Each structure stands twice: as C-alpha cells, then as structure tokens.
Amino acid sequence: MSAVVGVAIGAGGVLFVQDRYLPPRLSPEQSARLKAMLEQTERERARLAAELADTANRLDQGAATNRSMSDELAAARKALASHRSDIAALLEALPPDPRGGAIAVRSARFEKQGGDLVYQIVLSREKTGKPFKGVMQFLVAGAQAGTSANITLEAGSVSFSDYDSLNGRLALPDGFEPRQATVNVLDGAGGKLQGMRVLYVK
Fold first, then answer.
1. Could you tell me the pLDDT band of residue 65, with boundaries at 50, 70 and 90?
2. Measured distance CA(152)–CA(110) in Å, rounded
3. Which sign, positive or negative, has the C-alpha torsion 31, 139, 118, 86?
4. What pTM value is reported for the model?
5. Dihedrals φ, ψ of 79, to 5°?
6. Which residues make beta-bridge pairs with 171?
7. Rg from Cα positions in the chain
8. Do residues 153 and 136 make contact, with C-beta atoms less than 8 angstroms apart?
C-alpha cells in the first residue's frame, strides 16, 4: 500500500512541477493542430524524399545528360530542405520535455475510445549519428471493478534519428477505466529507460 501511495505522490509531484514551474503547455486543441501539421509535413517530406530517390536513380541509369531531370533533382532537393526546416520549426514550437531525458517526449495525448486507449505522441532527440532503436510502453493507472488497478501496454518498437511522430490504439482490459498514463521509452525490451512522461487520459 505504501508503494502505491509513493507512486501516486511521485506522479502528482511531476504534474505539479510541470504546471507550476515549467513553460506553459499547449492546450489540447493547440497540441492537436500542431500534431496534425507535423504529420502532414512529415508525409510531404516522405513523398519528396521518395521522388528525390527515384530521380537520382534515373540519373544514375544513364540520364545524367538530361537537363530537365537535373533541374527536377535540384528542385526536389530544395523542396525537401524546405520541409525539413518546417518540421524543425514545428518541433521547436512544442513544449520541452520537463524531464530532459535522452529521448524527449515532446507531446503526448491519450484518450479512451470504446474499449481502446488511443494515443498521439511526438518523440525527439539530439541527432548523434546512429538512429535510436528501442521500444515504447505505457504504464496505465485506473480502476477496474471499483478498485484501483494498473496495467502495462506494449506500444511496440520505435526507430528514428532526430524525431518521430507516433499514433495508434491499444485494447484495454474489459471494464478498465484509465485515468493516467506514463510513457516509457526504453533502449530495448526490459532495457534502460531513455525517456518518460506522465499524462492524464482524456
């Protein structure tokens, strides 16, 4: 019982410090809009990157003398650089992770929809050469059958260089009502904690 109380006090302390002393967090609506913009920009970046790779491949196959293809390649590179700049600006607009871990949980939103926990999360890190590869899990506190309960949900593997935008849904046990979720990013299954953040479930 004392361990449960300690966990509750610790989580409450994190939330108090976030609200009282750290920069103001975005409203849910602002976070959702910013997240949508980030996802749209990332989709466009991925499309441009694919076009750039295709154009470069065609040039490598003997069309290097084709001026129009060279111009197309230059334009794709310019557009890709612009989108990378847009993504960097969007990341800067997100609130910093108050815990300052190796992996920063820049934005996270949890919502119960039917029997599922729906999540939207943005992770970032300082680019250090090798991409980060690890796993993400959620420790969810709530109630079931009128009593307090805690569950662990495995969100799967994550791999990225400097940022990643993740969303999905995970099934909850029957009758479980989530109240609070802790995002844990580990360097592998059962590995070292690289980043975490505590949030309320909507």
1. low
2. 14
3. positive
4. 0.60
5. -65, -40
6. 116
7. 21
8. no
